[in-house]
Amino acid sequence: xxxxxxxxxxxxxxxxxxxxxxxYIMGLPKQLSxxxxxxxxxxxxxxxxxxxxxxxxxxGYAEGSAHVRASELRNPNKxxxxxxxxxxxxxEIQKKYEVTFEKHITELGRIRExxxxxxxxxxxxxxxxxxxxxxxxxxxxxxSLTGKIEDLSLEELESKLKKIYExxxxxxxxxxxxxxxx
Length: 182
Known about the structure:
Layout: E1 14-17, E2 22-25, H1 34-45, H2 52-59, H3 66-73, H4 80-96, H5 101-117, H6 121-135, H7 154-167, H8 169-173
Antiparallel strand pairs: 1-2
Helix pairs in contact: 1-2, 1-4, 2-3, 5-6
């Protein structure tokens, strides 16, 4: 009894690419064409400014089929490499423009220095204040009052002023004690 011929997956048209973790059916390209790359880049870099159809047209797809191509190129079942490339570009951009405390403070410092070098002291001061706010050095406090001071009786007014004074005595008189370290 003979076992017969042994076939490999590639002979049936299936190729498993471990890096991309996709299974490609024979006939689909294993790498992006320049036109597909251009479409993906245009789509990501012009997000919100151009439609996918406009990106397909600019990438060189025919005017009559650009709408269909734009849709197909974003379909992971039809063009998994293009979809993966779009995702890679997006994550690269998000990482590049990610807002972190360090990047934010550094950028504000750069803006301040540029403003100072141009003699724009107001802009430099605003940048420095923004840096201070980002660092938590400023606390914005807003108090909403209801009613008018004129509507208070003399006793109510005196009572409120005494309470404010007592609550802020340390600030007004500057009296404080420093605890001793043990």
